[in-house]
């Protein structure tokens, strides 16, 4: 078979293959949405935590998470709030239709409202989790939108899944822009280089065929063999294939043009081209291929997804080696139409000048290169941004919603951190809840944490009444009140003791008895005088003189009697005052004892509660025993007081009777005095009143007899009073002893309470001030809401929601989460949760895992890739020196480009830092693509290296134009990423473009020749020494 037939078959093969691949190619947009998301290993903590959280809320079902954001700048009115609540009610009613597995609305509980309603009243959130697998995230979003489209308030739909869907859509739009811009740019540059429209067209056809076929192969492998795939796979496939594919075409067509000018024969020119430039392309392509294949060994899915580019490189090499010769043979000299005279490429004057200067003055050249690169490497901070939201254009609803959440809620509310716990026992116990709450408290104390919502903190703050510190504080306050009461009781009992034990003076009673005796003697004498008077009047024998004498004696006796009664009245008044004192003593003592009993009863109740909740407090147990004993003693004393008071009442009754008799006697004396007055008047008118006198004397004698009897009764009552008072005084002495014992008991209780108070004070301020939930609260209806929100039905799983006070997407948030993780692991290891599953999850935790995995995988992947490239370079160049120089030059270029890009990003583009995956992608691109140019350069040098190290100068002169042109093409291709609007792609593009500028102006034309110059000087020194 002839040469043309072989090449024609090759052409037909590729055309048919590309048609077939287009037909069988899966839907790329769908693949990106379904399998293009970033995933980290299932062994990572965030994935384990997410799995547990999913199991807790949706029983392990895979879910989409969505959030409705209802907002009004002027604040939500009652009518608007009612509309929102009706909308949520409609969604809840269609729960089964929408496949909603979990929902959290502000209407469900006060705890939910506390979280979901913004403090400024402008925004309300609602969360739903919908079963995954039935539809895509965007399709589910479309099913939800009809429920909110008629609301008068601004309403947004967001969530991690819809955000990633928007990101995928944004990426796909970026890919389309990149493809169009890259094609236009490549055509323009190739036309400028070759001054012909045919070469650019052929180049685009060959690269386009390679791209379509490789993209279809990758898509089929992703769909059927789960080849790692990401949002960026297609993007990098575009820029790499169009970039290096065009570069290889420039090299091949430039050499073909040169050989046509030399040989004037198409077939021979093709053979020579592929024998020289073709070999270079193969070696360069193998270096790139090995670099990307090495990424299959990565563990991180995004890094591994980049390895798919190796498929495109392999297909590209096959196309360039088989299809390009067909076009070269078919078009021949016409390939460079309209140029009539085909000439070889011209030397590059800049590279020739730079390389000659560097070879001759290597140290000076190295200084120049160092000045251009080292400062930027020194300034490179290596800080990275893990905020994926910056990748999405502000036009997307999902990002607008997140911005509103960040504005009206705590900074970390838009993407909270979660902690999930799964145990093989019930966590709804006092001990387990105490452990959970202590863990929540430890997390809350971390700087950067705003709130922690948990089963024990459903509103994001401590329930103070459920803490021993608060309970002990209340108990301390109660014991303080009890101590105050004890002091009052002690004071009252001491006063009562003093009164009842003070000896009472009974001399007044004795004097009263003596006065009454004397009064009784006077009354007897009076009675005798009256009898004589009556007899005298009756007989009428003594005459008026004797009557007057007896009347005089009667008047004297009446005066004596009145004086005695006055003395008796005075003594009774004194005795009455004494009795009044006894009355106040009895009343005060009885009141004090009753108060003491009530105080001790309160203390007993308080101590019983304290002992039940804190059985280890021995001081409380002691105080309880003393309180019970004291109540018994006070009951006995109360009975003694009741007995004494009964006797006292009986005594006062007798005294009342004696007082009545005294009053009767006083009345009698008054009547006697009146009778004596009548006698006196009668004596003056003896004749007229003798009969009247006789009647009066008879009456007086009768009344005096009653008076004597009354005085006898008074005297008997006084004697009985004295006896009773003596008995009462003895009982008061016994009561005083009892009161003294009671006050001593109070001293013991006060001391015990003081010890308990001191202990509780220490407890209140110590680290053992823990969560304690009484059994009635644990089983209460109110706490059951918390169980329903934060635990599963079996109560062996629970979760916490941790709100940071910083943006959860920042590296600052990641540092906070690292501290939280360290503290959680430290506490769990020494608690009853040690054997349980305890994991953190959430966007920030994912970013922490992402950072750790990506950094570890970055180093490993780069090492593997560099080993592969090094081996290829050693094989191609057959020189360890050249290999080391190339590797060192590429590494220098990479870090200098990163430093410059960081400055551009932070100072010109206004971003905080480079995106987290930029260093990896940039290094992959710069190393794998940069090694291309190094191989171009070294392969040309090796053709004439036998002539000496100085042949690096003509090699630079000859290849300078090709490499610069290739760098422009590649740089322009990556520049096509900038209009995509995706920050990561923009930063990668800038890094690659900066790196290409450094490579094509400073590193390759200066650094490499300078190293060769140093080697030559070293060889000369060695030769001289020999």
Notes on the protein architecture:
- The longest helix has 80 residues, at 686-765.
- The protein is 74% helix and 5% strand.
- The protein is mainly alpha-helical and 1026 residues long.
- It contains 31 helices and ten strands.
- The protein folds into four domains: 3-22 and 167-391 and 849-1025, no CATH class; 36-158, Alpha-Beta Plaits (2-Layer Sandwich), CATH 3.30.70; 416-467 and 771-839, Alpha-Beta Plaits; 478-765, Up-down Bundle (Ferritin).
- Helix 1 crosses helix 9, helix 15 crosses helix 30 and helix 19 packs antiparallel against helix 23 (686-765).
- The two termini are 61 Å apart.
- The strands form three sheets. A four-stranded antiparallel sheet has the order 2-3-1-4, with helices on both faces. A four-stranded antiparallel sheet has the order 7-8-6-9. A two-stranded parallel ribbon has the order 5-10.
Number of domains: 4
Q: What Rg is obtained from the alpha carbons, in whole angstroms?
A: 57 Å
Q: First CA to last CA: what distance?
A: 61 Å
Q: Regions with pLDDT < 50 over 5+ consecutive residues? A: 470-476
What would the average pLDDT be, to the nearest integer? 78
Total strands: the figure is 10
The helicity comes to over 70%
